[in-house]
Amino acid sequence: MTVAARPWLDQIEPYRPGRHAATLEGSMASNESPLGASGAVLEAVARSARSAHHYPDPLADELRSELAVLHDVDADQILVGNGSDELIYLLALAYLAHGGHAVCADPAYRIDEISTQVVGGRLTKVPLKDWAHDLATMARVDADVAYVVNPHNPAGTVRPLQELERFVTESRSRLVVVDEAYIDFADDPAGMTALPLAAEGRAAVLRTFSKIHGLAGMRVGYLVADAAVIATLRKIRAPFSVGTAAQAAALAALRDPGHTQAVRNHTLRHRAELTRLLQEAGYAIVPSQANFVLAEAPDESELVERLWRQGVTVRPGTALGMPGTVRVSVPSSAGLDLLRAAL
Length: 343
Ligand SMILES: Cc1ncc(COP(=O)(O)O)c(C=O)c1O
Prior knowledge:
The protein folds into two domains: about 20-35 and about 255-340, Aspartate Aminotransferase, domain 1; about 40-255, 3-Layer(aba) Sandwich (Aspartate Aminotransferase, domain 2). The protein contains 13 helices and twelve strands. It has helices spanning about 40-50, 60-70, 85-95, 110-120, 135-140, 160-170, 190, 195-200, 225-235, 245-255, 255-280, 300-310, 335-340; strands at about 25-30, 80, 100-105, 120-125, 145-150, 175-180, 205-210, 220-225, 285, 290-295, 315, 325-330. The strands form two sheets. Strands 2-8-7-6-5-3-4 form a seven-stranded mixed β-sheet, with helices on both faces. A five-stranded mixed β-sheet has the order 1-11-12-10-9, covered by helices on one side. Strand 11 and strand 12 (about 325-330) form a beta hairpin. The N and C termini lie far apart (about 50 Å). Pyridoxal-5'-phosphate (PLP) binds near residues 31, 208, 210 and 221. Pyridoxal-5'-phosphate binds near residues 31, 84, 85, 149 and 210.
């Protein structure tokens, strides 16, 4: 083959997904839900198979209208995507292609970084300060898009709404995107979400069904933003990117708040135990508001390999731009026992 990829693609370091362990309990590398999806989701997905021969609803209208009611925004302010990752790529295509400029934290969520590089955009990375976004420094960067991941991945830290509001007001960036993939695990999700800013069209908020709803394999996320932003992304998206089963799964998950609450309760309780366990094993940890805990581990690769041999996978910080750390997802009770024994 003689075809050559665009030259700037040579610079891209491919995304390295977390490894699965031999058992579900032992898999603590990808921030997946240890409780799985709700029973209602399994039934809805099975039912949706009857429509397998039809193309899916291109804009996921039923899901979009329920989300609009839930978040008190207009349905035209919502775009459903094939995971929030698809929406991040669409944002990059629309606002960062051919020399656009993005600002994000260092370390960034890898997809923010990769999507910017893919479209030939430029990225300014601002190191975390005390493990959290340095919003004051980020605000001074004159960019097209500013990415704030709140809670941050992989640090698990949050910036309160007041600070975000100040950032949105003072930032020199034209579009502030707040990625709230992990917000359901924070102490006060309702008090810290940037959705009120998105409702006013002052920011864009990304949400996913992959975490608290346990639908990572279904691929559903959504963006809440100014209707003009949504209209632009609608023009450039692939029309059928969110499958029928995925839409059915997301709707069923949304209508099962009992399961969502159970996952939150489990996560908060087991996060505290996970924190204690890591500390007792001699690791300093970063207090987390997400469904994972970041531990400082000077013995990173040795620790990752030792746990792997004992049936536990965790994410090496090097793969996430934070060498000398490991990120451990909050596991099931059995997973916690496995980790305790392995440590
Ligand atoms: C910060 C952040 N944003 C977005 C995502 C991706 O979500 P989705 O599965 O909806 O593509 C992740 C997944 O790990 C994440 O950590």
